[in-house]
Amino acid sequence: MSELKKRIQKVEQEIQTACDKSKRNRSEINVVAVTKSVSAARAEEVKNAGIIQLGENRAEGLIHKQEVIKDGVDWHFIGNIQSRKVRGIIDEIDYLHSLDRISIAKEIQKRATKKIKCFVQVNVSGESSKSGVSPEELEGFVTEIAAYDKIEIVGLMTMAPHIEDTELIRSYFRNLKELRDDIVSLKLPHAPCTELSMGMSNDFTIAIEEGATYVRIGTALVGAESEGNV
Ligand SMILES: *Cc1c(COP(=O)(O)O)cnc(C)c1O
After folding, report:
1. What share of the chain is helix, strand, coil (3-state, %, to 5)?
2. Fewer CB within 10 Å, N side or C side of the chain?
3. If you measure from the C-alpha of residue 35 to the centroid of ligand 1, how many angstroms do you get, rounded to a whole number?
4. Bridge partners, residue 195, by sequence
């Protein structure tokens, strides 16, 4: 078995264990392979291994990968996006995971030629270094997005801090789920908000136990160029 297939199999086993533990069905979990730290050739290998949702966090990286991988995958933009970069990528992606500013919503409204599926990024841990809408501002922000009909809010996204305390990480994911449930109960037509994008290489099993429907996994799944293992 190739080194990549072994990684995929290991992640897959961990996903299944987390599903069993939390009595969830594997089919509820979408795996986005984050290819930002690997080559386009490696990303293509990932696609050929059957993972057809790929995530990039920079406009340049996305465009470069798309020159090599022309079709057959859903593209997820997971990084902080600058207003002036929206035009170049917005019609090229299937999901934006990092909507957190009205200025970006305005730019999407101006540039997109189709409806864009967006996750609102929430800063649940409150770290000043992290982007995202604060939990207190979330409802107001989501409500305001109704004015931009190119945007559909499909869910919420968060990044947990890199810490050892797994129970604290778990509390952040649980918090995001509660916020998601609050938004769902508003029954806003532009914001069905059923999805939860949470969990990375070091915490995806916790995220799945707490209700993630999209996990964004980079190094554990595809390796990293800097570690010399791809
Ligand atoms: C890089 C990145 C990931 C994946 O990180 P890993 O730790 O390599 O799994 C997930 N989400 C976002 C927003 C990222 O920037």
Report:
1. 45, 15, 35
2. N
3. 9
4. 155
